[in-house]
Amino acid sequence: MEYRDSSERAVKFLAERLNEKGQQPEEDMRKEVSSIYKLPNQLLLSGREALCMKVLDDIKQRFLAPDGDFLSYPEKTGWQRKTSLWLLAYNWPYVNGWLTVTAQRAARYDISRPAYSYILNFYNPVQNGFLWREPYDSSKGGKGIDQSICAFMCGHLGYTSLFMGDFDRARATAEVLCRFVSKQPNLDKEFLIKMDASTGELMSSGWKDEDKTFFTIDRKEADNRYYQLGFPVIFLQKMYLATGEKHFLNAACAILDFADTCHPNVYKYYKTHKVGYGAALVARVTGNEKYQTMARKIADNILTFQEPSGLFLPDCPMLERLDQSAEYTGWLREIYVELDGFVAK
């Protein structure tokens, strides 16, 4: 109940602050797709369908580009076309996956179809996985970091493919994630996030030092980008539900088992939320109390970031607060739902 109540308090605050057009009230926030892209899903799932539609109308009008991408500043160049939050532009199709799933869920096919068509530009049909930074280019033969397959994007966009009914592509992507798990050379040290698309082997080097946390989750270091483990778990559990094939569930469990052995900070970091939902999903289908405990520890930590108004992360910039608050409210609701159906086995 506490998770559900926290979620409702957050979505209520986020909904009531919007203006009559379904936009953020501040001019600088209003210009940013990153301030609003996660919110329509939470509005829809919390019973605010009319407001969800209004927000999606505005997103379509102001941010949906002719090619199906979503851009805050199409007049700019480089990554700043997407958003002023570099982290969201780093994995270029990340925002796109969120909006595609929400639009499909809301039966807004006028948004989901062109948006998904754009996402498919990032699919490598040779390795059957999704890229993270630039569209697939057959002339490059999979060579180069920017053409590498990303476990995080395979989880996120594989789930998007499943939601769009593109089952064969979703299944192939899930198999790639199983390869990510089976090919890990040393889980006592790290979990490697990228695969060389020219060889099919995991990448253990070749990135800039400042980019390390996007390429590996170091088991002994604090403040890793643990969320990169979350979407693969979520998607693999959903693929298990879709097929009944145990190897998808086994791969999801292996990723969670690794996460549980990471630095204790994994349960205090403010962006482990996706792992929490993944753990709740796996807990429900396995009846394993270990995963139930993981989900609860992460959800309990999220609660500590919420202020009385319902908004989260009072010490962060407003744009990040809006982004993360919309995400927290969703995962808290979903964790509540999954754990409510948990039966220990």
Give a nutshell description of this structure.
This protein has 345 residues and is mainly alpha-helical.
How would you characterize this protein structure?
The chain is about 50% helix and about 5% strand. A two-stranded antiparallel sheet has the order 1-2. A two-stranded antiparallel sheet has the order 3-5. Strands 4-6 form a two-stranded antiparallel sheet. The protein starts with a helix and ends in a 5-residue tail after the last helix. The chain contains 14 helices and six strands. With about 350 residues, it is mainly alpha-helical. The mean pLDDT is about 100. It is globular. Helix 6 packs parallel to helix 8 (about 150-165), helix 11 crosses helix 12 and helix 13 runs antiparallel to helix 14. It has helices at about 1-15, 25-30, 40-45, 50-60, 85-90, 95-105, 110-120, 150-165, 165-180, 225-245, 245-260, 275-285, 290-305, 320-340, and strands at about 125, 130, 150, 190, 195, 215-220. The protein has a domain at about 1-30 and about 280-345. InterPro entries: 6-hairpin_glycosidase_sf.
Task: Report the strand count.
Answer: 6
Strand order of the largest sheet: 1-2
Low-confidence stretches: none
Q: Over the alpha carbons, how many angstroms does the gyration radius reach? A: 19 Å
InterPro entries: 6-hairpin_glycosidase_sf (IPR008928)
GO biological process, one term: carbohydrate metabolic process
